[in-house]
């Protein structure tokens, strides 16, 4: 049976298969899982059925890309790539072979705007291979996302800066097959900083669904009819942070994001959007602004991780009971704006996030019925 894997935030890829670099691992764990979290701004999490967690994140001091595995009582860690990610997102997945893969960006800042290349790291045994997917330095910093089809082919989505194009790219035996969803897209430019993100998911029929944001709206594009069609699904107010999407076993779509009410620059809510009723329905979840991460369980119920950007902690929301319930997971210290969520086969929630004071990586799980936080040292 196919797992639906998605990760948040991007739209564009190139077609050349580029140079490879190999890096040795320090450790290896036998994982036979497939589950993927949505997006990472440093941290992203992917779970195995045995409960162990694969996590990708940036070493905040050196900027190298790290891979960690946590069994519940033991951490192992290795370098996946020495490339400097400098705060750009990472997105991790675990293939049916048990091997992890990571999408990430290696970028530079030009005139206060992050521009970068899109990279894809795979592990085989004790070696990591880093493949350059987009090498023009034209990828918007936090605009890429990752998903897999039924044959576990990776699909990437991201924005090309100069052409203002939304790109979908699929890896084939010949390399990366790139297609433009649309180009010359107008977007709001606030003095050079543009809040653009994407989230890509693939349903059980291998239909690709892409959600992408501009400052004031969320658009949805799909190739369900063979060609790309696009519609605006929300335009009530200012979009804050990155969007995150998931698809359930009925191929219904679920989206989480933060958005202000129309005409109000201060009143921001975490919102949930779904088409499981046949129409797009939006619900306000919590009065805060944050990047979001969403996943769905076996019966189509949504699970969200989010929080404030400054000392906002980590919050968890779900509609398992039929109504939305929000729980504080970690309220101590400064928590980075990214929180990544995943479920194991038993519906146990795992959340990974960078934490400061002291600076470290944390995971939280509700396996015991209460939230238990583990800290990597």
What does this protein structure show overall?
There is one protein chain. The chain is mostly beta strands and 377 residues long. The protein has a single domain (5-376), classed as Fucose-specific lectin (Neuraminidase, 6 Propeller). Helices cover 0% and strands 53% of the residues. The strands form six sheets. It has a nine-stranded antiparallel beta sheet, with no helix packed on it. The radius of gyration is 19 Å and the shape is globular. The two termini are 37 Å apart.
Q: How is the largest sheet built, in terms of strand order?
A: 14-13-12-11-1-15-16-17-18
CATH-defined superfamily: Fucose-specific lectin
Annotated CATH topology: Neuraminidase
Using DSSP, what is the number of strands?
31
Helix/strand/pairing category: mainly beta
Gross geometry = globular
User: How much β-strand is present in the residues?
Assistant: over 45%
Low-confidence stretches: 1-41
Radius of gyration over all CA atoms, rounded: 19 Å
Number of domains: 1
CATH class: Mainly Beta
**Helix share, percent:** under 10%
Number of helices: 0
Mean pLDDT: 77
N-to-C span = 37 Å
Architecture per CATH nomenclature, i.e. the level-2 architecture: 6 Propeller
Sheet with most strands: 9 strands, antiparallel
